[in-house]
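To: structure subgroup
Subject: Chain for Friday's discussion

All,

I'm putting the inputs and outputs inline so they're searchable in the archive.
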Amino acid sequence: MSHCKPYPAYKDSGSAWIGQVPEHWIVAKLAFRYHVALGKMLDEKRIKGHHLVPYLRNQDVQWGRINTIGLPEMDIVPEEMDRYSVSQGDLLVCEGGEVGRAAVWRGPDGVFGYQKALHRLRPVSSDSDIAEFMYYSLIAASVCGTFQEGDTKSTISHLPAEKFRTYRFPYPRLWPFPGLGGSAARRRERR
């Protein structure tokens, strides 16, 4: 990375795991930049087979990739599809197991659902944030042990949505960098 020039000025992020960030970056709670939603609770007794769609589980989301082969199905009625399906550019994040493991969805819009063990992140403003940068932020947070709870009594790690929304992350300003605003606007139009 010796070919990359440093930014002219940096500031303290106020977070030990983040450290210093370029002066023009923002450090904010996830909830200020992304809509965080947990998937649909699987209730096998309520599966009627009238509105079956394949759904993604925690195990289907690996770092940087999402399995779409051999998925189970659940009923998601048309009125619930926006709430419980994934769209191009959504970031899926594991709520349990390897907490924070994530991948960006690159499949079709509204064809796949997602189970309650996954958080779906969508930027509040696609002109300000892109899922790929958040994906790399999650890798950094995971490597730094940000999601590990030292005093937890549970044997399985979990990241409840309420807590996840309060974590602080760095966000670069995309504007006025050429090309980024236009592609983000096109992504938003597809939703």
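Points worth raising on Friday:
Residues 178-191 have pLDDT under 50 and may be disordered.
The chain has five helices and 13 strands.

D.
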